[in-house]
Structures are given as C-alpha cells and as structure tokens.
Design a protein that fits this description.
The protein is an alpha+beta fold and 100 residues long. The chain has helices spanning 33-40, 58-61, 63-74; strands at 20-25, 46-51. The chain has a two-stranded parallel sheet. Strand 1 (20-25), helix 1 and strand 2 (46-51) form a beta-alpha-beta unit. It starts with 19 loop residues before the first strand and ends in a 26-residue tail after the last helix.
Length: 100
C-alpha cells in the first residue's frame, strides 16, 4: 500500500489526567478486564470496574453498567455509585436434562 511506518509514539500507552470510566465484562474475550486494569494504571483519574457474568458490550448488556456510566457522566470527578455491582447474579447456565 506504500504507507509510511507510524511514529514510535503510536506504540506507547496513553497517559492522561482526564477522568475516565473503564467498564469491563468478566467474560469479555475481546477486551478482557486485565486490559482495563493495565489501562487504568496510566490514567490516574480513572474508575475501573468489572461487571460479573457479562461479556463484551457491557453498557448495552447490563442495566447496572448503564447506571454506573450515567452516574459517571453526571460527575466524572467522583466515583460513580457502584452498589448495584454487588447485586449482579451469577451466570445461569441452562443444560439439557437428557444427554443427546
């Protein structure tokens, strides 16, 4: 394609003082919670939470995560209310009664 190599800074982690919310799904195979934890280390004004029993797309998949995001948007300088995380049910696996 003839493109030039990117600048070395493109491979450096982002560092910022901007308030940031990181929400990760416990079972996210695309962007696992460990990546959010690593990212939070570079963002001193970040809030990082893992939502149990959820995969990718946490805010779309979980009303608790949506409430946390909305609370953060109301005041990004304060930790959002995450009390709903303690109420998250464990995954419910439905297996057939009879082997196939």
């Amino acid at each position: 394609w003839g493109g030039e190599a990117p600048n070395a800074i493109e491979n450096e982690p982002v560092r910022s003082e901007i308030p940031t919310l990181l929400l990760a799904g416990e079972f996210d195979p695309v962007t696992p919670p460990s990546w959010a934890e690593q990212t939070a280390e570079m963002l001193p004004n970040s809030f990082m939470y893992t939502v149990n029993g959820i995969g990718h797309g946490v805010i779309r998949s979980n009303t608790c995560a949506l409430r946390i995001a909305l609370d953060f948007l109301d005041d990004p300088t304060s930790a959002p209310d995450t009390s709903c995380l303690a109420e998250q049910p464990a995954p419910d696996f439905n297996l057939p009664d009879e082997p196939r």
